[in-house]
Amino acid sequence: MSFLQSLGAKTIGKVTAIGRAALMLFGALVAMPRLKNIPLIVKQLYVVGVQSLLIIMVSGLFIGMVMALQGYTILVDYGAEGSLGPMVALSLLRELGPVVTALLFAGRAGSALTAEIGLMKATEQLSSLEMMAVDPLRRIVAPRFWAGMLAMPMLAIIFSAIGILGGHLVGVDWLGVDAGSYWSIMQSTVDWNQDVVNGVIKSLVFALVVTWIAIFKGYDSIPTSEGISKATTETVVYSSLAVLGLDFVLTALMFGIE
Amino acid sequence: MEHLVEIDNLTFKRAERTIYDGISLKVPKGKITAVMGPSGIGKTTLLRLMGGQLLPDKGDVKFDGESIVSMSRKSLYETRRRMSMLFQSGALFTDMSVFDNVAFPLREHTSLSEDIIATIVALKLQAVGLRGAAELMPSELSGGMARRAALARAIALDPDLIMFDEPFAGQDPISMGVLVKLIRELNDALNLTSVVVTHDVTEVLTIADYIYILADKRIIGEGTAQQIKESDSELVQQFLKGKADGPVPFHYPASDLKESFLGADK
């Protein structure tokens, strides 16, 4: 009986948390975007976007290099190393770019967002905004949300672009794949709508999920050191799982067999 | 006498625990009203109820005649522009300098030019003695200075009501003296109404015009400093004199120690 009871209590807890998260997002988005808030979004773009560039670029480079190395050793057996370009480009644009960017973003920027908002709550900064008649949803939550939504697709594109260059470095410069075939077969194989746009759509969905989870976990955290540490961990765990799960669903919808 | 805040028969519960059980109190305009009580009885909660951040389970909170409880969100935000709160930690925004912290409410709620804002901020900082610290970041301030900077921010929009949450907690004697002086002087000079929530008896008795003492979910004593000192309530006297045991027991409710050791609990 007590097992059923705790199961019920947990379910109710989760469902109300989803409700609170939806209300928070709604409150932040319904707020009319004001001109005054644009500098706030720019500042957050710097924090979540520009400051994540290095880790995104380095990871993109290495992933592209590893892909080329792995791809080459398999393709060369069939004399198909000319197809290295599309292999690297398609896997990056369709999957690795959006997914790995989202995972890195969750670890690099998501955890920081949660900790920042959680500490703002703990140090009464959110309360004091409310008492100053400034809605923290507009002032704190909304700019961070929009910055995340804008930054993630751009980071994913940069990730893929650097990865393709990394593939070129290993495949063409080191392993001797023909540069012409690397680029030209890539150009003829990669489809704008099917591959590039779908990749961007994926990363928009991941941006929504990761930023939403990160902000909500901070906003809803228990304002103690233990509570914030738990919230930060949950942000990374939940958003990574959500990204991987959603990636399967999105892939099935976008590239599934018709 | 006119009252700025009126709390009428208010009951507030947090989870299953009753914090307040039908309390009523009035904050007269232009005066300093102190609310005292032992820690952990929800004095801060009372300020949050006045500011509309929490809603009571029963009863009403009125600000200048209008009910905070039944107000729409929009008018609540309008009303909050006329009140401000000094938080225990100061709650300065850590990513802004002292100057920007004080300028924050002005920039948010007015369309004054930067020149005028700079003048107002300088005046407010001068009033709390921190004009020289305008360019410092909150992390560079001592606890007392942070609270004074927060006070400058709290008076930036010339509010009608200012609520102090434990302004004296954890301050050294000098900062304590500075804060006592500031609260009294600002109240009189700016024609403010102040509510001070605290458990520092001596400081409060010197500046408060009217005092409420909270304990055990209700108001156990009220009056001017003189009336409070002469109160014949045992509870009030225990609180004023800081006795370890009395109507507020030393022990948190528990079963008898001897019986517990002998296994009577099981």
Q: What would the keywords be for this entry?
A:
heterodimer; A: 258 residues; mainly alpha; 9 helices; 0% strand; B: 266 residues; alpha/beta; six-stranded mixed sheet; 10 helices; 10 strands
Structural description of this entry:
The complex is a heterodimer of chains A (258) and B (266). With 258 residues, chain A is an all-alpha fold. Chain A has helices at 2-30, 38-49, 53-75, 84-122, 125-131, 136-174, 179-189, 192-219, 225-255. In chain A, helix 2 runs parallel beside helix 6 (136-174), helix 4 (84-122) runs parallel beside helix 8 (192-219) and helix 6 packs across helix 8. By secondary structure, chain B is of the alpha/beta class. The longest helix of chain B is centred in the last third of the chain and has 17 residues, at 173-189. Chain B is globular, with a radius of gyration of 20 Å. Chain A binds chain B through residues 123-125, 127-128, 130-135, and chain B through 48, 51, 53, 77-78, 80-81, 83-85, 87-89, 91-94, 104-105, 108-109.
